[in-house]
From TrEMBL:
One of its GO terms (biological process) is XMP salvage. One of its GO terms (molecular function) is hypoxanthine phosphoribosyltransferase activity. The keyword Glycosyltransferase applies. CDD domains: PRTases_typeI (cd06223). One of its GO terms (cellular component) is cytoplasm. This is Phosphoribosyltransferase-like protein. Keywords: Glycosyltransferase, Transferase.
Length: 203
């Protein structure tokens, strides 16, 4: 059976507060791009710290929605968990919004890495599409100025099924083994969730 770890809101806040000085120094973002739904709460907490710790006092959060393929009738076992689907994306001017910016992509957990890989490669396509609207002489500089970084609250140390472009700035709140993390926003009874988290911390 997969071991579970219950994570509290305070745990997440604390992990973010510990990592943000490094993010502020090494990759001060122009935009936070939350992957919903798990990236929403972390991104909002990060905004508080990054507005304080960087020159960007008006740092904003954008959102995209991605989920790993939900099994539907007739889906083969191999297909399940192989595909990432978009449930929400930036507007038709996605490339325009991001071009020339340092974009920090935020999610709660990096498991197989498929979601992060999908996000970066699709956003890069939006950038390339936008670059076509610019004179060729400007494209290289604009492409170079557009950077994607990653922040996840938890990174599972396990073989990843997809890769990020070499050199992508990558930050995690904590690195763990291959556990199943129970996040507080999934709990119906938050007190029971917190009690379980406390019990696990003591054991
Ligand atoms: P990926 O395998 O693409 O890195 O992760 C995809 C998504 O699976 C995550 O964004 C998250 O929604 C979900 N996921 C992966 N591992 C866990 C986990 O340990 N706990 C929870 N609650 N969700 C997870």
């Amino acid at each position: 059976m997969v071991q579970h770890l219950h994570v509290t809101y305070n745990d997440i806040h604390r992990l973010i507060s510990q990592r943000m000085p490094q993010v502020a120094k090494e990759f001060p973002p122009d935009i936070l791009l939350a992957i919903g739904g798990g990236g929403f709460f972390p991104a909002r907490v990060m905004r508080t710290f990054l507005r304080e710790q960087t020159a960007n006092k008006t740092l904003q959060i954008q959102a995209i929605g991605l989920s790993l393929y939900e099994p539907v009738e007739g889906t083969s076992a191999e297909q399940i968990g192989q595909e990432v689907v978009r449930t929400q994306w930036l507007g038709t001017d996605a490339g325009k919004q991001l071009l020339g910016k340092r974009v920090l992509i935020v999610d709660e957990v990096d498991d197989t890495r498929k979601t992060l890989h999908y996000a970066v490669s699709e956003l890069q396509k939006d950038i390339e599409a936008e670059l076509a609207n610019h004179p060729e002489s400007e494209r290289d500089a604009l492409r170079k100025a557009t950077q994607f970084g990653i922040f996840v609250v938890h990174n599972k140390l396990k073989p990843k099924l997809a890769e990020l472009p070499a050199g992508t700035p990558y930050f995690s709140g904590a690195d763990l083994g291959d556990l199943w993390l129970d996040y507080p926003w999934e709990a119906i009874d938050i007190e029971a969730h917190n009690s379980q988290a406390n019990a696990e911390a003591k054991s």
